[in-house]
Amino acid sequence: xxxxxxxRQQKTPLTWxxxxxxxxxxFVGYFISVGLQFIGTRLSSAHNGxxxxxxxxxxxxxxxxxxLGERLxxxxxxxxxxxxxxxxxxVGWDTxxxxxxSALAGNLALIGAAVTWALLSVMARKFSAGRSPLVITxxxxxWAAIMTTPVMFVEWRFLPVHGLDNPLLWGAVLYLGVVATxxxxxxxxxxxxxxxxGTGSVFFFxxxxxxxxxxxLVLGEQLTPSxxxxxxxxxxxxxxxxxxxxxxxxxxxxx
Length: 255
What we know:
The protein has twelve helices and no strands. The protein is mostly helical. The protein has one domain. Helix 2 crosses helix 7. The protein starts with a helix and ends with a helix.
């Protein structure tokens, strides 16, 4: 899906350095991080997944400071902290996971997913200075697909999939591949090419809010007062992070 669009946009030949960057982004972000999130959610719980992976923006701030030289401003730190509180309000703190060792392994996998997704985000931001986000996404997904395919067959051997004759299953797979994977990865990389990684990280917290809204619209799930309270806190954090810095006001005024 992404390849013909990226091929039209890419005017100059890709170098080996480009392919190495695509390989690294695909391995860290789309193979390791996404894989760890699936494993962690399976072994732990969806609540744990929402809470633990919400630590990813904090790691994005750290990696952006170390790798890109972005400033750790008080506003960025406050926005991430405020949005974290909002996520906890939305999903609740009671994780309900008593799976013993498997739950611990799942939580560790989720922590790994949060760290590696943060690293992916900063690498995508760094590399977007020289290449289009669409080309980066297509190249990284290509390498990730190559790495994921043999693992898929191994997993299929131990965890067989049933209902392959159901058209709804293939429709869900198509949606996950085109919309939730290719589309979502592209828009995330595109956003990070337009704003600082630390600022863009706060938008990560909108996931549980959007998920709850879709659950209400599609599945008829109830929206509790905690959703509106936590969602409001998250939106406030996003607004604070998105406001122009005082230095921009002063520079524009001097002009």
